[in-house]
UniProtKB/TrEMBL annotation:
Protein's name according to its UniProt entry: ROK family transcriptional regulator
InterPro entries per record: ATPase_NBD (IPR043129), ROK (IPR000600), WH-like_DNA-bd_sf (IPR036388), WH_DNA-bd_sf (IPR036390)
Family as reported in the entry's similarity comment: Belongs to the ROK (NagC/XylR) family.
Gene3D superfamilies, A to Z: 3.30.420.40, Winged helix-like DNA-binding domain superfamily/Winged helix DNA-binding domain (1.10.10.10)
Domain of life: Bacteria
Length: 393
């Protein structure tokens, strides 16, 4: 008779992962809710929760006092002191955050830079900040991994940054550099692809199965795709580079970059120049554009919105999404008149593809890329809570 324990252990590990993912994605849930969601019996749920608690991955809290029917059920929550370090290196700043397994952003730092940081310098910055966190606000926390959202092509197989043109990174082993500097497992992904995942899980596209996401940042325009509820990375992990498409521009008077690509025409740098700013974070740029009544600012906004509408119409025709989400400075372009932008897209897209289409602004705002990076960092732990766990840092 064969020993059934390996198969039984496999089922147990999958159930542990299922419970941990539920409380991570949905927030604190009662044992009764977990029983209903999984179909497992109450004693099995209690046993699994106890194991996750011993691993330091969840904590149980007192029952909801508003519940008045039946026996109160303890509430299970993801442990807030289990942390992922999330990083977004850009041409003008390196932004870092410590994000809990309960999805709370514990710390957030923007380190402005006056030069293009190298991969090695980025790794050193991350290591220095994590060391400082451990001495300060995150003393006693368990930092389980680092996730990087990089504005460039990232090879899915090994986290090699093949090309981040605005940072001047080529074939950069960023994952290995950060792991060596921090001693932590590291995951690297394209910033816009991670932003798409974040908005799909928690933001403007939550619960939507077919999504096109475009992100506008200091390094240009990237994108992410959700099809049948799953992220689409492409064969090598390079899908979604909308910014490299050739834009359709009806009038030569609206062209600023000769034969440039979309991100050369629809550009954060051009918006900054219009409001006479050399650098700014997203809220500052949005406020400056909203406050300006200068004709050249209005003209630039109108020009970029028109070109963006054509790019979105092409994406809608090819991919037929239910929702298009715009993040970064593209959200700023859209917020001025979402209905007008939708109409401009509809004027150029196939009528059937526009049926039910909704264009939305990213609801996670400037945290979207960091949240996406944290999700990538947590994935190994969520998939295998016992195998990926380790002693507190």
């Amino acid at each position: 008779m064969t020993d059934p324990s390996p198969a039984a252990e496999g089922v147990r590990q999958r159930n542990l992962a299922r419970l941990l993912r539920l409380v991570h994605l949905d927030g604190p849930l009662s044992r009764a809710a977990l029983t209903e969601a999984t179909g497992l019996n109450r004693s099995t749920i209690a046993d699994l929760v106890a194991e996750l608690a011993r691993e330091g991955l969840v904590e149980e809290r007192a029952p909801d006092p508003s519940r008045r029917v039946g026996r109160p059920s303890p509430v299970v929550a993801a442990a807030p002191r289990v942390i992922a370090a999330a990083v977004n290196p850009e041409v003008d700043a390196v932004t870092l955050a410590a994000i809990g397994l309960d999805r709370e952003i514990v710390l957030r730092e923007r380190i402005d830079v006056d030069h293009l940081v190298t991969p090695e310098e980025t790794a050193a910055i991350i290591a220095e900040r994590i060391a400082a966190w451990r001495e300060g606000g995150l003393s006693g926390a368990r930092i389980v991994a680092v996730g990087l959202a990089v504005p460039g092509l990232v090879r899915a197989a090994d986290g090699l940054v093949r090309d981040a043109p605005h940072l001047h990174w080529t074939d950069a082993p960023v994952r290995d550099l950060v792991t060596a500097a921090t001693g932590l497992p590291t995951v690297v992904g394209n910033d816009a692809s991670l932003g798409a995942v974040a908005e799909h899980l928690y933001g403007a596209a939550r619960g939507i199965d077919h999504v096109v996401y475009l992100n506008g940042g200091a390094s240009g325009i990237g994108g992410g795709l959700i099809v049948h509820g799953m992220p689409v990375a492409g064969a090598g992990g390079y899908a979604g580079e909308f910014g490299q498409n050739r834009p359709g521009i009806a009038s030569n008077a609206d062209r600023r970059a000769g034969e440039g690509v979309l991100e050369d025409e629809v550009s954060r740098a051009r918006l900054l120049a219009a409001v006479r700013l050399s650098a700014a974070d997203e809220p500052t740029l949005a406020a400056a554009l909203a406050a300006s009544d200068q004709p050249d600012v209005t003209d630039e906004l109108t020009r970029q919105r028109g070109i963006l509408a054509t790019a979105l119409a092409n994406a809608v025709n090819v991919l037929n999404p239910s929702v298009v989400v715009l993040g970064g400075f593209l959200a700023t372009l859209a917020e001025h008149d979402v209905e007008g932008l939708t109409a401009a897209v509809g004027a150029q897209a196939m009528t059937a593809n526009m049926e039910g289409l909704d264009i939305r602004v990213a609801s996670l705002a400037e945290d979207r890329l960091l949240i996406g990076a944290a999700e990538a960092a947590f994935e190994r732990l969520l998939a295998d809570p016992s195998g990926a766990s380790s002693p507190a840092s």
